[in-house]
Amino acid sequence: MIAALTKKTTDYSDQKHFAFGFDCDRCEREWTSSDIPFEQSEFSTVVHEETKSLLWSEAHRVAFERANLEAQFHFNYCARFEQWVCDDCFQFCEGADEDVCFNCYARAGRDLKKGIRGYNP
Ligand SMILES: [Zn+2]
Ligand SMILES: [Zn+2]
After folding, report:
1. Which of 14, 74, 82, 99 has a Cα-to-Cα distance from 26 of 20 to 30 A?
2. How many angstroms is it from 100 CA to the middle of ligand 2?
3. How do residues 87-118 score in pLDDT, each as one tens digit?
4. Ligand 1: distance of its center to the CA of 55 in Å?
5. SS (H, E, C) 18-52
6. pLDDT digits 0-9 by tens, 14-31
7. Separation of CA 9 and ligand 1 centre (Å)
């Protein structure tokens, strides 16, 4: 299993489909990945239970990797805190060298804030 993008994830997968919840590292609001069905139809009807569970585990692993990738487009990375946060917790700093989460933004010095459009000290 690869490391999850955010600190808290929930596995909603069952025998028929795969889905994962990722919580924003800051506000902990959950985002759920696209539902991925577990395709069994391609295998013959007489599949050994053990084989089935092996196939499921493998598909589950792949689905989790895919969900992690998808999550990277939903969450934003704050390099200062090394955390992934949702759009609501993220400050895009136009003209500044970096974009940061609200925690860092609140603590950020003048230099960073200067880069933000509309910022008027
Ligand atoms: Zn958030
Ligand atoms: Zn931050």
Report:
1. 14
2. 5
3. 999 987 776 677 888 888 777 765 565 555 55
4. 35
5. ECEEEECCCCCCEEECCCEECCCCCCCCCCCHHHH
6. 999 999 999 999 999 999
7. 14
Exposure string of 99-113, with b = 16+ CB inside 10 Å and e = fewer, is bbbebbbeebeeebe
Tens of pLDDT, residues 49-82: 888 888 899 999 999 999 999 999 999 999 888 8
| Distant-in-sequence, close-in-space partners of 116: CB < 8 Å, separation ≥ 6 | 91, 93, 94, 95, 96
